[in-house]
Amino acid sequence: GHALGDHLLKLVADRLKSVLRETDTAARLGGDEFLLLLEGLQHREQAEVVVHKIIRSFSEPFMVKASEVYTSASIGISTFPDDGNSVELLMQYADTAMYYAKKDRSRHYRFFSHELRAYIDEQLAIENRLRHAIRNKELAVFYQPKIDTATEQIVGAEALIRWQNKDLGLVPPTIFIPVAEKYGLIEEIGSYVIEEACKEAGCWREMTNSDIQLAINISPRQFRSSGFLQTIDRALENSGLAGSSLEIEITENLLMQDTHEPLEILNELLDREITLSLDDFGTGYSSLSYLKQFPLQVLKIDRSFINDMMENHYNKALVDAIIAMAQILDIKLVAEGVETMEQFEFLKSRNVEVVQGYLFSPALPAEQFREYIDMVQAG
Ligand code: C2E
Ligand code: MG
Ligand code: MG
Asked: What digits encode the pLDDT tens for the residues 90-137?
């Protein structure tokens, strides 16, 4: 909750101050990020000493309103003048180093390095080209069918973006979506997907009499952006699509990392009868509390579990547990990444309503997806 979170942040600030010298500066950048400025150091090792003190100070729990809270810190370090000589660069490099420290669970801190610089250069190259991708018509939306396990009919389609660049080749969304998030391009790209996909789904409606629900992935920053709901409304209006024909896929980290209340936006979407689903379930915290706390109607079991569940008993048990839990909470299930008949049969026997995966079809270009609809409908 917010009150406890604020309290914890104050305690963290006190603890950070307790390991610093009078001449050092500590500041909170926002959210759960702090910046420490250590002046007048002669060697990197001196920064390391401070880092170890911080890490040690975090090994004790924080007392927040009579409960013990354990937390940890991920620390990124950049040095002046070795790494750069502007505030912007040094902050950006420290941020990158922190991002890596966070990703690597075995370490708490990381210095900025040459490899990280190469990584940033690569990201910048992607960012540069991504800026022009929409105008150059390099982006396309593909559609992957979602199949009802009982009838084997198409009940929905997930819009998945593709980017073909002449220098970089086919860049997977797992690479460029995070770049778009980081460099503020996600709103534009996300809006493009929403508009394009709704328009296409409007056509499915005209060419068939069936109701194919369109699912769109929304990343955290896009979800939070001020124009998000307007974009949705505009796309629904322009395409003539009903809100009930639209599904929004979000991930757990959106619910987690958001500092302002995502509940309001979710409720706005619900008011429009849009379905809300939680993507990649099982990979993050897989917290039951989110399912109770937020009005979610669909859980998508991550493909990494489906992938080897027939061989991996542990994953099979997890899938079973997720299914049981969703059924108790009355949440609809979608299994993604279904590749074999065996997986399909198993999921069907467990009453998982909807599946998606290469067994039926990969994501297809708009034109081919229409043909696919025709084919399935013709039986
Ligand atoms: P996701 O939302 O979990 O999408 C499912 C991913 O699984 C897609 O990868 C899809 O092509 C892949 N997939 C589907 N069936 C199978 C299968 O049977 N086996 C295997 N191995 N994979 C399968 P894709 O298209 O590369 O997208 C990756 C991720 O990028 C998506 O994961 C989603 O998080 C993100 N993404 C894609 N399009 C968009 C978009 O328009 N906006 C946002 N914000 N994110 C997007
Ligand atoms: Mg998805
Ligand atoms: Mg997924």
From this structure: 999 999 899 889 887 778 999 999 888 888 888 899 999 999 998 899
Give residue-wise pLDDT tens across range 318-370: 999 999 999 999 999 999 999 999 999 999 999 999 999 999 999 999 999 99
Radius of gyration of the chain (CA): 24
Cβ–Cβ < 8 Å for 8, 62: yes
195 C-beta closer than 6 A to ligand 1: no
Cα(346) to ligand 3 centroid in Å equals 19
pLDDT at 260: 57
CA of 307 to the centre of ligand 1 (A): 14
Q: Dihedral sign, CA of 227, 228, 231, 232? A: negative
Task: With a cut of 90, say whether residue 287 has pLDDT above it.
Answer: no
Pocket test for ligand 1, best of 174, 176, 217 (most atoms within 8 A of CB): 217
Strand ranges in 218-290 using DSSP code E only, listed in sequence order: 246-250, 275-281
Burial class (CB in 10 A: 0-12, 13-18, 19+), 215: buried
- Could you identify the atom of ligand 1 that is nearest to the CA of residue 142? 25
Query: What mean pLDDT, rounded, does the chain reach?
Result: 92
Mean pLDDT of 252-259: 74
Does residue 173 have its Cβ closer than 6 Å to ligand 1?
yes
Residue 208 CA to residue 198 CA, distance in Å, equals: 15
Report which bound ligand comes closest to the CA of 302: 3
Q: Which residues, including other chains, have CB under 8 Å from residue 66's CB and lie 6 or more apart?
A: none
Structure confidence at residue 211 as a pLDDT band (50, 70, 90) = confident
**Host H or E run for residue 183:** none
Residue nearest to atom 8 of ligand 1 (CA): 160
| Ligand 3 midpoint to CA 150 (Å) | 22
Record the pTM.
0.83
The gap between the terminal CA atoms of the chain, to the nearest Å, is 51
Instruction: Specify burial of residue 247 (Cβ count, 10 A radius: 0-12, 13-18, 19+).
Output: buried
Ligand 1 proximity of 78 Cβ (cutoff 6 Å): no
Asked whether 306 lines ligand 1 (CB < 6 A), one says: no
